[in-house]
């Protein structure tokens, strides 16, 4: 099985979006450089951020998201983001009416089922878990191996929390990656077992 990584871009005070689900300036670093991050050329980052982010993205075999994120993004139009092969959506509702059954999306009822499906789909590649409520549930269930965050220098004050509604203490190891990009700090922590 591959490594399970909880990931998102986050404000310095721990939010992945404001109270209206808007990321505000959190994604500005995706367009403040001159190195294309993907084939679209729409995201251009600094060389430092590219050298950290692109190899990580290339390792991802499946991503787990909640239905809320799926709905906000309209399922990325049926094409998983960043070149990911598969998306597993945690939801108690069926796929949207008219959803392309050939799209590499899987709708499951709980986080444990989502993890089992994602690990099967990813094989020995990384399973990425979107931070927020679903990520927090998987962390609380002991199913996350590492936490990656791209910290942007902005304070939201309130909004959607990186760790969702986690109310218990979870220890992480010291960061084993700390990379300063332009308007972003890339961090990686292993989850202490």
Automatic annotation (TrEMBL):
GO biological process: riboflavin biosynthetic process
InterPro entries with a match to the protein in the record: DHFR-like_dom_sf (IPR024072), RibDG_C (IPR002734)
Protein name: Dihydrofolate reductase
GO molecular function: 5-amino-6-(5-phosphoribosylamino)uracil reductase activity
Coiled-coil intervals: none
Residue ranges occupied by any Bacterial bifunctional deaminase-reductase C-terminal domain in the UniProt entry: 4-171
Organism domain of life: Bacteria
Organism per entry: Tamaricihabitans halophyticus
């Amino acid at each position: 099985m591959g490594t399970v990584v909880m990931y998102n871009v986050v404000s310095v005070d721990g939010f992945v979006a404001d109270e209206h689900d808007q990321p505000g300036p959190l994604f500005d670093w995706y367009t403040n450089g001159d190195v294309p991050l993907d084939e679209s050329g729409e995201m251009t980052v600094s060389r430092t951020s590219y050298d950290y982010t692109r190899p990580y993205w290339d390792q991802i075999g499946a991503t787990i998201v909640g239905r809320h994120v799926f709905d906000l993004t309209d399922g990325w139009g049926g094409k998983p983001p960043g070149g990911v092969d598969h998306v597993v959506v945690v939801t108690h509702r069926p796929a949207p009416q008219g959803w392309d059954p050939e799209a590499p999306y899987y709708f499951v009822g709980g986080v444990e089922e989502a993890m089992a499906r994602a690990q099967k789909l990813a094989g020995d590649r990384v399973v990425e878990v979107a931070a927020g409520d679903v990520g927090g549930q998987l962390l609380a269930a002991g199913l996350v191996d590492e936490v990656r965050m791209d910290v942007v220098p902005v304070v939201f004050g309130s909004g959607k929390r990186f760790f969702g509604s986690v109310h218990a203490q979870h220890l992480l190891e010291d960061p084993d990656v700390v990379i300063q990009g332009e308007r972003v700090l890339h961090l990686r922590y292993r989850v202490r077992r």
